[in-house]
Amino acid sequence: MTFDTGNTAFMLLATSLVMLMTPGLAFFYGGLVGRKNVLTIMMQSFVSMGVTTILWVAVGYSLCFSGDVGGIIGNLDHAFLKGISPFQAYSGSGKIPLIVFISYQMMFAIITPALITGAFANRIRFGAYLIFLVAWQLFVYFPFVHMVWGGGMLQKWGVLDFAGGIVVHAIAGMAALASVFYVGRRKVMEHGPHSIPLVALGTGLLWFGWYGFNAGSELAVDHVTALAFLNTDIAASFAAITWLAIEWIHRKKPKFVGLLTGAVAGLATITPAAGFVTPTSAIIIGIVAGIICYLAVALKHKLQWDDALDVWGVHGVGGTIGVIMLGFFATKAVNGAGANGLFYGNASFAMKQTVAVVGASIYAFVFTYLMLITINLVSPVRVKKDEEASGVDESIHGENAYL
How far is 151 from 11, CA to CA, in rounded Å? Predict the structure, then answer.
C-alpha cells in the first residue's frame, strides 16, 4: 500500500500536538491550584498518558472502532491491536496508515479524563482516581467515541462533532460537575492561583496543541484542514477578548487569568464546529463562548459549587453550546461532508445536535455520580481532612513542588 507521505507527516505532527496538550493541561491546572497541591493535579494529567495508552492498546481502540454492538459500543476483535498491520490503510481514507489514526485517537483518549481532574482538585485520593480513570473511559468515553465517530447510533442518525464537542468537552464537563456534587466542597480553601505564569504557559501549550486537535481531525490536508485551523484561532481570540472585556467592566481591572480562561473557553466551544462553519460563524461562536462561559462560572460561584478550576463552566458549557451552535451555523458550502444547519434551512439537524448533546451530558453526569459511589465502596475517594490541610502533594505522594 502506498500512502500519501504529506498527509501522513501532517497527521503525525497533529498527533504530537494533541499529545502536548496533556502536559499543557498539567501546567494550566498546576498554576491554578495552591502551592501544596501542584504535583498532585499535574500527576493526574501525566499518569493518564501511561494508563490510557495501556488501556487504549488493550481494549480502547477496539471498543471504539471495531464492529458494532447495539449502536453503542464496538467489539474486541482488535484487542491488543490484534490483526492491525503497519501496511494497513485507515478505512476512512487510504491516504494514511491505520496505525497513525490509532495513535491520533489515543491522544484524545488521554486528555479527556484529565480534563475532569480540575473539578475535584485537592480532594481525591490517587488510588481512587486511577480506578476512576479506567472505569470512566470504559463506560463513558469509549461508548461515545463509538456512537459519534465509530459508526454507532449517533453517527448513523446524522449527528456531527468535528473534533470532540460531545465526545470530549460536554461529557467531561458534566462528569466534572457530578464529581463536584459527590465529593463536596474543599475544607481548606485556597486563595487564587499560586502561579499565573504557569497558567499562561499551560494556555499557550493548549492553544498550540489545539491546532492539531481541530485541524488534524480532518485526517488529511485540504481546505477543511485550513478552515478548522483558522476557525480555531478566531474563536479562541474572540472569546479571550470578550471574557477580558466583561471581567474588566465587572471587576474594574483587566485580569490575565480571565483572558487565558476565555481563550480556553473559545477553544472548547469551537471544537465540534471547527470544520463545518464559516470564519464569520466562528467569530459569533467565540463571542458567545466568552459571554456564556463567563456567566456559567459566575453562576457556579453564586450557587457555591466547588468546581475548583471551572471545568464545568469552561469545558462542559463550552462544548455543549458549541454542539448546539453547530446545529445553527453548519453549512455544506464550506464542507460538503457536513450538513446545513438551522440558519441554512435545516431545523432537523439543529434538533439532532441538541438532543444528542443533552442526552450525552445527562448520561455522563448520572453515570459518573453512580460510579463514584461504587468506587468509594472499594477505595475511599476523598482525602482526609488532615491530608487536605497539609496538602495532597506531601500527604499522598510524599513530594513537594517547592522547597
Answer: 21
Neighbouring residues of 335: CB distance < 8 A, sequence distance ≥ 6 = 224, 227, 275, 276
Q: What is the C-alpha to C-alpha distance for residues 160 and 158, in angstroms, rounded to an integer?
A: 6
Q: Distance between CA 159 and CA 138 in Å, rounded?
A: 22
Residue 87: count other Cβ atoms within 10 Å of its Cβ. 9
| Grid cell 442518525 in the structure block, residue | 157
Note the pLDDT tens digit of each residue in 24-62. Answer: 999 999 999 999 999 999 999 999 999 999 999 999 999
Burial class (CB in 10 A: 0-12, 13-18, 19+), 170: buried
Kindly give, in sequence order, each residue whose CB lies less than 8 Å from that of residue 184, ignoring residues fewer than 6 positions away.
123, 306, 382
User: One-letter amino acid identity for 165?
Assistant: G
By the 8 A CB rule, do 123 and 186 touch?
Answer: yes
Residue among 257, 214, 190, 222 at smallest CA distance from 96: 222
Give the C-alpha separation, 266 to 200, whole Å: 16
Please give the DSSP secondary-structure letter assigned to residue 186.
-
Grid cell for residue 146: 463509538
User: By three-state DSSP, how is residue 58 classified?
Assistant: helix
Model pLDDT, residue 1: 67
Residue 119 · residue 177 · CB < 8 Å: yes
Instruction: State the distance between the two ends of the chain, measured CA to CA, in whole angstroms.
Output: 56
Domain chopping of the chain, boundaries: 5-395
What are the cell numbers at 99?
A: 496505525
Instruction: Supply the CATH classification number for the domain 5-395.
Output: 1.10.3430.10
- Helix 256-270 × helix 196-215 angle, to 10°: 20
Confidence (pTM): 0.97
Please classify residue 228 by burial: count the beta carbons closer than 10 Å to its beta carbon, then call 0-12 exposed, 13-18 middle and 19+ buried: buried
